[in-house]
Write a structure and sequence with these properties.
Helix content is 69%, strand content 0%. α5 runs parallel beside α7 and α8 packs antiparallel against α15. It is built from 21 helices and no strands. It has a single domain, classed as MFS general substrate transporter like domains (Growth Hormone, Chain: A, Up-down Bundle), CATH 1.20.1250. The chain is mainly α. It comes from Lachnellula arida. It is found in: Membrane. It is a multi-pass membrane protein. InterPro entries: MFS (IPR011701), MFS_dom (IPR020846), MFS_trans_sf (IPR036259). Keywords: Membrane, Transmembrane, Transmembrane helix.
Amino acid sequence: MFDLHPHPSQPAQRTPTKIDFKLGPDGKGLPPALTASHDDYLVDLTGDDDPANAKSWPLRRKLRNAAVLGFDTLVASWGSSVYSAAVQPVSKEFHVGTVVSLLGLTLYICGFATGPLAFAPLSEMYGRKLPITGACFVFTCFMFAAATAKDFQTLMLTRFFAGVFASCPLAVVGGAFADLFGNETRGIAIAAFSSLVFIGPFISPIVGAFITESYLGWRWTEYITGIMGALAFVLDLFILEETYEKTLLQRRAAYFRTETQNFAIHHISEEEVLDIKDIFNTHLSLPLKLLFLEPIVFLITIYTAFIYGILYLFLEAYPIVFAEKRGINEAVATLPYLGLIVGVIVGSAIVIGFEPRYNRKLRANNNIPVPEQRLLPMMIGAVLFPIGLFWFAWTGNYADIHWIAPTLSGVVTGAGILTIFLQALNYIIDAYLMVAASAIAANTFLRSFFGAGFPLFATQMFDYLGVEWAGSLLGFLGLAFMPIPFLFYIFGERLRKHSSYAPTDFGKKKDDEENRDGTLGGVEERKSEEQTGGESGGSSTALDV
């Protein structure tokens, strides 16, 4: 760890400077030089079982925190699609068109795109709990504001800002799971996370439809979401613990400084000096750098964005098929979403079934992540997904075909959606472990625009092309994306060898683990880079995380 009583035989080395420091009145200057080496004052992990390493926590403690994070994710995704049942009532109450009324759905999802660019880097600067708890509180306030909105523009604004703050768990929870779970268990944890991301949007339209059909009215779709947000805030405040190692070690260093009055004690990350330009260039812009400069992140994100768009397009397509075409009551017509929910659960089971194989590969690779092994279930999903779309397209529009046929197509589609989306996240996290939250934020940023845009043209597309060919068009696009996991399984490792953020050799992996706070071998290397004006060609720089 470090020595609280440094040895005078190891004096610290000071960098010569011509600056005349004055610390106070009467010409008071710098105190005597430190009488120990720099490393003697550094706070670090004491061992593998150090409580500052969340991976060492007991399983019950991990699961308690994971459950709270999962509920945060469910509330955020629930809030996005529960409004779909309110589109028609809002249109009538505020005298706007149906497409205009849909903006309450799409603006919320647009908020998903903007929020992660700030929340993910903030979580890597200040920890996971503070952004999640603060965002949950503000989200709850905006949901209650939406429920009491007196005019249409207020409803739209509050829905948008609710989406901005709801995006925090979507961007941060993946990083928190990376803190809590090691390589062998992270896949199962992310499976639970991804299931909630998709179950929320599929189950909330069912609840919302029965609420709006009852005497409660559409405003209670927002009230109930606000109540769920308030519960999530209480859980975050009193049960959720900080999981980020850098933040925990910074707190430990602050405690030791207070107890010993030795203000040289610090964590290596506290040597970073940030200004607004640094924060923007290296923290806030990191998700965009990953998105547009990393081929793996870009192509995987495009694929998951298409999947995410289909998810929200179904919020319009299913009512068209089951309510308009088949004449089923609007509330009852939402029940076929249960097929998609079952599919999501089946997809989770497929992914979890591959975990023992992945763990064997992991152990054979000296416990260094093998990201490409995450792609095998994604390959299965890439095949299932277009099959489900074609099945839905050619069974949904015919009254002589039983309603159970298009409903069962949702099992295949849902399994494809989950396996693609989930393993895409696992692949990104394994490949970009040290900047996982920012990589997920980049993914969330782009896919949210697809999720926001697809519902706006769903009705027109299904009306003009018909259910058969509108669904087939989506199926053909699914076929076009299908080779992506197969290509990355073959060429992914070669691409990662050329990445500045995804080192593949053992030495760099080891360095990343030892410098989890995001430093590139300490401040001295950073100073060296600044002097030469160059950038690291290996792992990410201190401020990139």
